[in-house]
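Researcher: I'm preparing a figure for a lab meeting and need a structural model of a single chain. I don't have an experimental structure, so a prediction will have to do for now. The sequence is pasted below. Please return the structure as tokens so I can convert it later.
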Amino acid sequence: MVNRNALLKGSGVRLDTDSIFTGLMYFALSCVLILILYPLIYVVSASLSDPVALVNGKVWLLPAGLNFKAYGHVFENRDIWLGYRNTVFYTTCGTAINLVLTIMAAYPLSRRDWRGRKFFMVALVITMFFSGGLIPTYLVVKRLGMVNRIWAMLIPNAINTFNVIVMRSFFQTTIPDELKDSAFIDGCSNTKILLYIVLPLSGPILAVTILFYGVYHWNDFFTALIYLSKRRLFPLQLILREILIQSQTEDMVELEAGHLERILESEVLKYAVILISSLPMLILYPFLQRFFVKGVMVGAIKG
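Model: Understood. Here is the structure written out token by token.
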């Protein structure tokens, strides 16, 4: 009887401890959510607020004095739509090229029966620590005739070593070797195994890879800054960068001329530009989130 009471008491203490731990975890995660979510809400509110209220610090959570002038100034610029078109093209085509090449590199490296696997794996890892440098890379791209062409945005960064390693690890730890061996017995070639067995079972890692490459291409402006000088080829990020620089230059001119109103409007314009450039990726992420969570757990649990 004593042992039973002690057992019940012990289980009760354990239940209380678990409840306290769960409550603390929810509280900590709620704080992290607030820290992440508040800057996003503030950017949206600031972009829709009256410039005077924004400068005076009256914008905290909700917009103060609803104002859409900043978005009007941004979308009046025809280069914005040109940049959107170019960025969508670079992101779509670039991600497709990245995904195909990453699969073509990761699958052979995941095959334990390939004798050259270790040599090429070491060669790939070395590229993560040592590169040719900016100037030699530019000279190679120029010699290949890709400067001021769309290929300059697609080919130099066509594959990422880290993504190759992650995908290779997924193929090794998730796709059973027995499944591949049985396919070989049935007469499947390596190409058919990849297309009809490996890839249909690799949805999470494919979604994660698409997300990684897509975000990179969408936010990439440095590549265009180096290789592109024709304005009709500029991506959105480079055009938005020019708008911000131009806005800062105009602020100095307006400050000397005493036009305070335009200076205040430029402050709101900055937040509108940030939101316009970030919104597509924020919309895309929730649709890939469940695959992203699965991809992060690659190799973490194996039973």
